[in-house]
Design brief:
By secondary structure, the protein is of the alpha/beta class. The chain has twelve helices and eight strands. The protein is globular and about 55 Å long.
């Protein structure tokens, strides 16, 4: 079984959780080449990522949007669960639970943080991984925020997250991780609309609905996100650093931070762990 995930050359926390969380949780050594793909965390339910595999075990991935669903008539599909109800509907009514990144507190190795972070005093900021790093640094310096850079390793990212009492995030997985560790968060859009288009709002709603959060928690998109990618990039310039600072300051000052209901989160974590237990039995003894 081969692990399927999006690899950015500089790193991206949401995608990079895959090799960090799955070998440990499944007690399994993934193969470097296999005709069976394990499709985990990310908006990777797309032919771009899965078409080469004869069999696909879907374990929490999401579609990018309804019109970008892979050809389900080709190959063998084993849908254990997808990220949320929107992905489930787009794939014809398959099961959903939530984004597996909510398991991060169970995997994080620092014992004092296993059940959630306590004692954080600062506000963290997470940029979208294609947003300018220099802009994020300027935001954090100007507003006195903790920089939670998406290129950090999972352990480094979560260690910095432990310093935070709340998080402003342009990245969906920044919000997911904050929520999983019971840190209030608010989503924001600076550059993500230009790169993701309609995917941006779809994937946030997909995850939010899986935890019974209302659509109002999803950061609003601009009309720009409905346009084709080349046009978005040409006519939708990134905000200036000053504009970005002002927007993040406003989002933080509004104090409209969100958190899912703890009982719902724990239920979804337990459901995913149950699927992990079932798959481990099917995989047999751990490989080394």
């Amino acid at each position: 079984m081969q692990l399927v995930w999006y690899r950015d050359k500089e790193g991206n926390i949401g995608d990079d959780l895959n090799p960090w969380i799955w070998p440990s949780m499944l007690d399994y050594e993934f193969e470097s080449s296999s005709d069976t793909g394990f499709v985990g965390i990310g908006s990777i339910l797309s032919d771009v990522y899965v078409a080469r595999y004869a069999k696909r075990i879907v374990f929490g991935a999401g579609v990018r949007r309804p019109g970008r669903v892979p050809d389900l008539a080709k190959g063998s599909w084993d849908f254990r669960f997808v990220r949320g109800p929107l992905s489930a509907k787009a794939c014809g009514g398959v099961p959903y639970i939530s984004d597996p990144a909510i398991l991060a507190p169970l995997r994080f190795e620092e014992g004092r943080h296993r059940n959630g972070f306590t004692g954080g005093t600062e506000t963290g900021f997470v940029r979208y991984f294609k947003s300018p790093r220099s802009q994020a640094k300027a935001i954090c310096e100007e507003l006195g925020m903790v920089e939670l850079d998406p290129t950090f390793s999972p352990d480094e990212f979560l260690s910095r997250l432990s310093r935070c009492r709340r998080v402003v995030s342009e990245a969906m997985h920044g919000a997911i991780l904050a929520d999983a560790f019971r840190i209030p968060w608010v989503g924001i859009r600076l550059n993500s609309d230009r790169h993701e288009g309609r995917t941006a709002g779809f994937k946030w709603r997909d995850w939010a609905f899986s935890l019974e959060l209302p659509a109002s928690v999803v950061p609003p998109s601009r009309p720009l996100n409905l346009l084709p990618y080349p046009i978005r990039m040409r006519i939708g310039p990134s905000p200036t650093t000053g504009q970005a600072i002002a927007k993040v300051r406003a989002a933080s000052a509004a104090n409209a931070f969100h958190l899912s209901d703890t009982s719902v989160l724990r239920k979804r974590q337990a459901q995913i762990m149950s699927e992990i237990t079932r798959l481990k039995k099917e995989l047999g003894p751990a490989r080394s």
